[in-house]
Amino acid sequence: MIYGCSSGIAAPQEGLPVIEGCFVSAAGTVPVTLEVASSSEQRQKGLMGRTSLAPNAGMLFEYSEPRQASHGFWMYKTLIPLDIAFLNQHGVIGSIRQMVPCASASGSGCPTYPAGVPFIQAVEMNAGFFREHEIRPGDRLYVGKDNCPAR
């Protein structure tokens, strides 16, 4: 059987800017490619429906005003396990959470993953990305390839 072949749900969001950047930690510099979700609609859809992400690809969620530590993300209609890093206005990681897909038919059946720290940006990457690259709270995301330290 073939499911959803005409739905297009697994396609990336149309028209999202894509930026190069890097995470910098004591272990080194890790280049990343990030889709940028900055409107409410873009952030709400996020990575819903995706069946995979390239190894160093993810999504950067940008807010115009800081979010409270209680603000969280959910995995409704999200098919792949993800890690999320919550960042301050300087790109410094305040917390990292692991999130699992939610099979519930309604959003109310899905848990939320609160940041635990105030934040103004969040980055979702494949599950295990931050652990694999030894990226921890206190490490930093630099946006723009030119802003990344030479490796």
Give a short overview.
This protein has 2 helices and 9 strands. By secondary structure, the protein is mainly beta. InterPro entries: DUF192, Saro_0823-like_sf.
Description:
A hairpin with a 2-residue loop joins strand 1 (18-25) and strand 2 (28-37). The protein has helices at residues 40-45, 129-132; strands at 18-25, 28-37, 57-67, 72-74, 82-87, 93-99, 112-114, 119-126, 140-143. Strands 6-5-8-3-2-1-9 form a seven-stranded mixed β-sheet. Strands 4-7 form a two-stranded antiparallel ribbon. The protein has a single domain, classed as Protein of unknown function DUF192 (Jelly Rolls, Sandwich), CATH 2.60.120. The chain starts with 17 loop residues before the first strand and ends in an 8-residue tail after the last strand. It is mainly β and 151 residues long. The longest helix has 6 residues, at 40-45. It has two helices and nine strands, in the order E-E-H-E-E-E-E-E-E-H-E. 26% of the residues are buried. 7% of the residues lie in helices and 40% in strands.
Beta percentage is 35-45%
Using the CA coordinates, give the radius of gyration.
Answer: 15 Å
Class inferred from helices and paired strands? mainly beta
The geometry reads as globular
Strand order in the largest sheet: 6-5-8-3-2-1-9
In DSSP terms, counting alpha (H) and pi (I) runs of 4 or more, how many helices? 2
**How do the helices and strands follow one another from N- to C-terminus?**
EEHEEEEEEHE
Count of DSSP E strands?
Answer: 9
CATH architecture descriptor text: Sandwich
Query: CATH homologous superfamily name?
Result: Protein of unknown function DUF192
CATH structural class:
Mainly Beta
Span between N and C termini?
Answer: 47 Å
